[in-house]
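thread: overnight batch results

M.L. [08:02]
morning all. the overnight job finished for the chain we discussed friday. pasting input first so we're all looking at the same thing
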Amino acid sequence: MIMSDQAVETSPSTPALRRHDLDALRGWAMLLGIVLHVSLSFFPTSWWVQDPQQNQLFGLLFLAIHGFRMPLFFLLSGYFTMLIYRRKGLPALIRQRALRILLPCLVGMFTIIPALHAVGAWAAARAPRPSSAELPPLFAAIRKGDVSGVQAQLSTGADVTQPDPVFQIRPLHWAALVGNTDIVNGLADAGAPLDQGDGRGNVPVNAAAFAGHAEVVQLLLSRGANPNAVNQDGRLPMDVLDVPFATTSGILEFLGLPRPEEERLSEGRRRVRAVLEPVTNRGSEVRADTREKGWLDRLARDYTREIRSKRFEITWRGQPFHLVTTGVFDHLWFLWFLTWMVAGFAIAVSVSMIGVSPGSVEGGDQATGNRLLLAAMAATTLPQILMGVDGPVLGPDTATGWLLPPHLLVYYGLFFTVGCWMQGAESTMQSWTRPWKWWLTAALVIVFPAALMTLGSRPWSVVLQPLYAWLMSLGCLGLFARFQSRPSPRMRYLSDSSYWLYVVHLPVVVGLQSLATDWGGGAVIKFGLILLIAIPLMLASYHWLVRPTALGWLLNGRIERRPGQVRSL
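M.L. [08:03]
and the structure it wrote out:
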């Protein structure tokens, strides 16, 4: 990653000017990552914490950042990977990346990630749940699993067809999510429609399958529910079994239901699959999907189903473990991706696939460079086709498992490859980044709004989302080259600390987000306060506990005191 090799040890025979602009861009990009995660508690999403004070503008802020930040990271990482290779050779590159990317990734997996989960569990335990008093009596009784209370409401003529006023969820859907078969039977006897969809066309069988309640699924089917009811996304009830645990638990907690145990949910969904597979008709899904969606959506759905299939599931310590979807790295996933990209780079160099050697990389003439860059931009539309299957979002998918989804590896790999090429094509890149004002204006004023308005359209998203990422990346490179090309002690310190800040920030941020639910003031004030507390706190830990220690050397490398020498990111 761009912030994982803070220093390149250059010999006196290979001096190089320090890229102060890229140092500054790295530091600000890391801060944007923290800003992005702080924003998540202030608009509806499946995050660890949901603040009672919500502001939809934070949703726009999240999308604006998420749409380009990680592509820019991989672009810069490719640049500095090539720089290290040119100056130090392949063995030194592998050694440095192993120390500053792979080792922190593995250490963080056993330290930072457990700390995050512990803080998340604490936050979930103290999170305010939607009060049953906010819901009509029928829904309150269903949520509590109060069978007699439900029967009492039904005896008074409670409407079993209308959704609740808070979440817009119908009674039978609630009962299916809760998993109470007695309440499901009572509602069905009272006339609750078995195949009435919610706002997105999900029927009660979907809800029961989603929550892993096999007995409820079996009961609904025995009463005549349709196992092949297709929702608005062209999905069958069985398809919800592939929704990742983190997403599932986040949604259930948002609804005020208990956070499920991952092992119990996996076992419940395994039993649901055994019930649904014999009665699922993929043909009906395709016919309905043909009416509702295009071939790009079907391709994305089929691809996602394949990489989430049982063939990539193993048993670990007696529990199912999916190599693609089971979360392992959380926010450190990018380090795992970069490990594999550097491995690919090393293999490519070793077999002369990219035809470069230390000190002899050139980017070719500008016309060739222009064609290569345009080809890479066009190529990113292909993996974009396969993204956003779990719901429309502006920005690339995220994968935190052991196996890297091929579409994400290709997508980020294209940015990484362009970064490698950039290192030997400075003049071409300067010509592309010089009109930074136009790129940023076009991205923020034209492409970003257009991408938002077409989120539900895969053909438009395939074009607009990669275009936004490229325009913002080129614009930021030009902006920082224009205003941050001179040395700045403050920016250098920010650059040095940025890796540590990003690695450790999530437990701190989630803890503060949980505490902020009790604070007064609106979402904007809380958002600002969390940043004002978290960043100085983490900077202090870096200054006193990391920078002067062996940990600081591991993360930052040898800090050169000689002015004007390069420090790779």
